[in-house]
Amino acid sequence: MENDNLKFKKKFIELEDGGGGEKSSKLISEIRKFFLVSKKWENTKDDGAVYDLGKEKLVFTTDAFIVDPIFFPGGDIGKIAICGTINDLSVMGALPIGISLSVVIEEGFPLEDLKKIMQSIGKISKETGVPIVTGDTKVTEKGKIDKIEITTSGVGLAKKVIENGGAKVGDVIIASGNLGEHAVALLASRFNYRTKIKSDCQPVTAEIQSILPYLTSCKDPTRGGVAAVLNEMAEKSKMRFVLEENNLPFAKETVALSGLLGIDKFSFPSEGRFVATVAKKDSNKVIEILRKFNREAKITGVVSKGNGVWLKTKLGSEKKIEVPKGKLIPRIC
Asked: CATH number of the domain that 104 lies in?
C-alpha cells in the first residue's frame, strides 16, 4: 500500500491525545493518512459521514465511551453512549433510525450494574424510538480494562444535511442551554464536590428538528467543550466568531468549579446541548422554539469576517479563545 511508509511524529500516545483538543486533532489527522479515501462518502470530518441515496442522505457515525465514574448525577455510561450517538446524527440534521451496541466487560463486573446500564440504554431507545439493531459483547480478564467500555454506531436519514462549516457573516451564535454541565457532574463525583448540577446528557433530536430550516451550522460541544467546537466551526466556515461575556452560557456553579479546579470552563464538555448559527432575522424565532425545550437557550455571540473565536469582555476588549491544549479532562465521555 502507498501509505505503508507513513510514520507517526512521536513514539508513544499521551493521555491528552484523546482529550478533544489540539493534540486530538493532530493524532486523528495522522491516523487518517493510512486509510482509503472514497469520494462516495462526504462530510468525513464532521460528526458523521454522509452517503447520497438520492432523495435522502444516509448519515453514519460511531463513538467509543470510557467514562469515569460509570455512574454519575444525571446518567451513566449507557445513557451517554446512546445519547452521544443519537446526537452526532441529530446535529447533522438526520433522524436516527438504528444504533449498534458493542460492550467490552471486565471479568468480575457486577451483573446488577450491567443491568442498570442496559436499562438506561433501553429507556432512551424507547423514548426516542431509535432501536438497538445489532451489537456485540465481549468479556476480558480482570485488569485488562477498567470495568466496562461501550462503543455505539448509528445511522440516520437526512433530507437536509447540516455541516458545521456553514456559518455566514451576520449570523448569530446560539447555545441550546447552559453548557459544560456534563463535565461538572463527573468532576463533582470524582472530587466529592457538592453540587445540584446533573449531567446535561440527553437526546437533542427533537430540538434540532424543530429549528432545522433555520440552521446554517451546528455541532454538539463534547470533548474539548465549546472552545474546541467553535474553533472548528469558525475555521471550516472561514469566519470570526465573537462571544459576548454578558451572554456566556454557563451556570454559576460551573464557573465556580472551573475556578476551583483551575480548568477552563470553555473546555468543559456537554452531552445534551448544541451550539448553532442562524441568520439574525431568524434568531428570535429560534430562541422562542428552543426555550420550549430549555429555558436557558440563548444568543451568545455573532459571526463576522475574519478568523478565530473571540470573547468580547464586559469592558469592550476582545480575548482569543484558543483550541484546548495540554492535559484536558480524561475519561469524560
From this structure: 3.30.1330.10
